[in-house]
Structure to design on (88 residues):
């Protein structure tokens, strides 16, 4: 079971930051932790990649606003997708 993520882009402006990246589950993994690099995370939006509608939408397992940068997400097994995090 393995969960991996990448931070592909960090946009700064308007008194905050937007972090954009991807996540990948393998070996039956159903989620993991994403370190966004934000001091305070206000929102985290994961989106599954696929050719069809997913039975279970990925979701953050956190209460926002979150003081810190580590967001735990829950996904379908072996899911690949993207995420966008908003904060400062």
């Amino acid at each position: 079971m393995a969960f991996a993520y990448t931070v592909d882009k960090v946009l700064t402006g308007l008194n905050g930051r937007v972090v954009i990246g991807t996540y990948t589950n393998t070996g039956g993994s159903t989620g993991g932790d994403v370190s966004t690099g934000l001091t305070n995370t206000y929102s985290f939006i994961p989106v599954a990649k696929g050719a069809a509608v997913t039975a279970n939408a990925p979701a953050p397992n956190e209460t926002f606003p979150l003081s810190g940068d580590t967001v735990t997400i829950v996904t379908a097994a072996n899911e690949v997708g993207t995420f966008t995090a908003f904060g400062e």
Notes: The chain is about 0% helix and 60% strand.
